[in-house]
Amino acid sequence: MNQQILLGVDMDLSPATQAMLQMAGSFLVQLAPQCQALLLTVIPVPYDTPSSLGRFRGQTPCLSATTVQRTQARQTLKLAQAVLVQAGIAPGRLETQVREGVPVEELVKVASVRQVACIVLGYRGAALWQRLRRFLMGSTTAQVLRRAPCPVLLVPRPSGPTNLVAWYEAAITRELSEHASGLSIFTPEEVASRFPPLHRTHLRRKEVTAAKKALQQLADRGVLICQQVKGTLQCFND
Fold this sequence. Notes:
Rossmann fold
């Protein structure tokens, strides 16, 4: 039986998670070609607790996730899966799962039940407000490290724009897979406008530059054909 690793994917597909997916893709292709990956997204749902000490073991959520949350979770996992497929991993090696509850509880529970080889998480960084939040509340990462039944690998958020490039590559790849029989034409401005990362609300030069790099990298891999048309980069599927 092939071993399986558990990849924790947050709901907004944060830069740290995008960096983790890139690293996991390289690992699965180069160092663990027989390993399977389980991509898990947990929809945070509050628990009905009798005190501020936390929920008791076996307690159930007091609310259910909304339809919007479930749709967002599925879309997030589609994008995450597209990043790994783009890295060269066969879809048959990937499994996705959406759960509801406290992220720490669900991550540890799934890791135990599935007996995974390790848990891989993106690490958001050490900014002052993040350190303060962890001090007051305790981070998901820290709690998973304490409670996990297996090794935990943390991947830090990159300082450069590579996370944006990965986001756009995944979005373009998904768009191509969903419209495989038709002609798709992309420009950097259109890509940045159509596929905005969930944590970004304004279109800036940085987003357009990252979208252009994503298109060029897909062209280098033979996925797209790119050419300059009246001073604008246009890319299309063959």
